[in-house]
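Quick one: structure for this chain?
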Amino acid sequence: MIKRALMGAAAVFVVACNSGPPPGSATNTVGGADVVSTAQAPMAKRTTSLSLDWGKKAQAGQVAIADVITYSGPKITITAPDGWQLIRDDSTPTTRQSLYWHAIQANDPSTSTWNFSVPVDAQGAIVLLSNVAAGTPVDMSNVQTGNGGAVKSLPMTTTVDGNLILIFAATDFSNAPLQAQTPGDMTAVVAQEKKPNQYWILATWQSQTGATEDTDFEFPQLFHWVAAQVAIKHGSH
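Got it. Here's what it folds into:
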């Protein structure tokens, strides 16, 4: 079961501008990982790299999750920065979503850069987490892709209690805003709902081991989309 807990919106539209969930957000009552802050990199056209900056709130022992989104052309080679581990890499004919994690060390630079083998359009976000299992932060993950229709992630079965469930959804819709109606039991911590190319990162906590819920954004997209769920294990408190 997913505990129905809202975390509050925290959308940021430039690199190195960080924000956490606003005052009044629901309390993490299951002992799961916490969202410390988020930051976004705006769309860069025909670029060979994308840089993400987790900002000044990072501390050694925390974990950063990077969402690198690339568009158009063949499936290129992405070279991640040193110390970043791939969670999953999923594509449609137009939209690719690559997720990574990194355990923050003392004296780590705040900015990390992903390099692309050929120029692509790219944007992305970074989510900074505390109270995450050291060395093995990811419990489970899965993905659903589609062409049109409602953006929807699939349920998955977790192996430990108190997971933070993150949903990463990216689309290639790049005209007038086509805002999604996000699921009622969670709130976006990142919501890029203006053109070009909308994407979201949602979060909630799971109260106990078992199947998560699927998520349905309800408002149909016109083109290609990717929606992944990632379960993050809590630390030793």
